[in-house]
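Entry 12.
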Amino acid sequence: MELIPAIDILNNIVVKAFAGERKKYKAIKSKILNSCELEHVIQSLLNEYDFKKFYIADLNAITGNKNNFKIIESIIADYPEIEFWVDYGIKTYLDFKYFENLACTLIIGSETLKNILELKKIIKNVKKDKIILSLDFKNNIFLGPPSLIKEKKLWPKKIILMSLDNVGSKKGPNISKYKKIKSGLKKEFYLAGGIRDNNDIFLLKKKGISGVLLSNALHEKKIIYKKL
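Predicted 3D structure (tokens):
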């Protein structure tokens, strides 16, 4: 199972995410670092474990209030050995075209996707393994074009199930949502939101999850890597 640190950037700093309430996000506090600058956070996490992938969400771009493109692109250039999954708040095919030549894997978040026609345009012009679809939920409600959750033939190989209300909480991962959506699909699923410790990771691995996006559990030192 893949362990992928999840990093949220807002107004040029890394913030602590909680329940999708982005207006309340503040600079991250952690047991493994003493700075909220992106480069320091990346390096501190790499000092803890040999992570191969990182997830980065540009919260400004996602909410339509400025962006953190330069900082993120600089980090991507500084760590060519790392595979970065980046959510730039892509809404349309033209948005996708703007980023498609960057050395990262682009995430199409259902929350920001304008409509399903834009996703069809993206898929028509790019290999499905070059993008990741994030199916975003809050309070168990799907955030995105309603038809997207039904048209599973459009989904790429890799799917993130993002339970925003579980993010930063002690609720644990939303396994029931995974079971319902996965049913019969041969996709690689990654769960985000609520993973608390090794026990959650072991459970999700048994359920067939390909990977998890982690944040609080990493910064609170709840993951014991040598036991994984």
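Annotation: Residues 38-48 form the longest helix (11 residues). Helices lie at 38-48, 59-63, 69-78, 93-99, 116-124, 175-182, 198-206, 216-219.
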